């Protein structure tokens, strides 16, 4: 099994941290260099039976200009071409306008979107069900997976869910 997975989410939600955990420090740091190419490859996750190519999609999280509009369209095209989209949110920061903008964009995409509730180590466990309900009401996500990218909690579960879409 193999496939492409795009990662979206506003700055600081933990995209790089997740990639560091999944793929290893070196590659994620390399891919943080500014690039002008369409898609940055975050890294490639390889196992005996599977390979996942993680793509960054710059331009999806804000629109500031005509160039921004163009970038957005490029990003949307990418999202329609991958097997699954990981939409990361920061549950410690709470839901914000930046997240709402991304969800609006994702409504135009037919690819399955997996909501990743990151920084779960920062909230009380009993707060999580209500948060999941709140996100479910906003969009029809293919799956919702709470994780801590920093501590690595539940990241194996996320990879398992991803494999179902390859
Ligand atoms: P990006 O901009 O989406 O790539 O976000 P980064 O991966 O650079 O993370 C932004 C900040 O959030 C960093 O200080 C990370 O250490 C922190 N962070 C990322 N994931 C977690 C997490 O699961 N828990 C906590 N407590 N902090 C996290
Ligand atoms: Mg980053």
From TrEMBL:
<feature type="region of interest" description="G1">
    <location>
        <begin position="9"/>
        <end position="16"/>
    </location>
</feature>
<comment type="similarity">
    <text>Belongs to the TRAFAC class TrmE-Era-EngA-EngB-Septin-like GTPase superfamily. Era GTPase family.</text>
</comment>
<feature type="region of interest" description="G4">
    <location>
        <begin position="118"/>
        <end position="121"/>
    </location>
</feature>
<feature type="region of interest" description="G5">
    <location>
        <begin position="147"/>
        <end position="149"/>
    </location>
</feature>
<feature type="domain" description="Era-type G">
    <location>
        <begin position="1"/>
        <end position="166"/>
    </location>
</feature>
<keyword id="KW-0694">RNA-binding</keyword>
<keyword id="KW-0472">Membrane</keyword>
<protein>
    <recommendedName>
        <fullName>GTPase Era</fullName>
    </recommendedName>
</protein>
<feature type="binding site">
    <location>
        <begin position="9"/>
        <end position="16"/>
    </location>
    <ligand>
        <name>GTP</name>
    </ligand>
</feature>
<feature type="binding site">
    <location>
        <begin position="118"/>
        <end position="121"/>
    </location>
    <ligand>
        <name>GTP</name>
    </ligand>
</feature>
<keyword id="KW-0699">rRNA-binding</keyword>
<keyword id="KW-0963">Cytoplasm</keyword>
<keyword id="KW-0547">Nucleotide-binding</keyword>
<keyword id="KW-1003">Cell membrane</keyword>
<feature type="region of interest" description="G3">
    <location>
        <begin position="56"/>
        <end position="59"/>
    </location>
</feature>
<feature type="region of interest" description="G2">
    <location>
        <begin position="35"/>
        <end position="39"/>
    </location>
</feature>
<feature type="binding site">
    <location>
        <begin position="56"/>
        <end position="60"/>
    </location>
    <ligand>
        <name>GTP</name>
    </ligand>
</feature>
<keyword id="KW-0690">Ribosome biogenesis</keyword>
<keyword id="KW-0342">GTP-binding</keyword>
<comment type="subunit">
    <text>Monomer.</text>
</comment>
<comment type="function">
    <text>An essential GTPase that binds both GDP and GTP, with rapid nucleotide exchange. Plays a role in 16S rRNA processing and 30S ribosomal subunit biogenesis and possibly also in cell cycle regulation and energy metabolism.</text>
</comment>
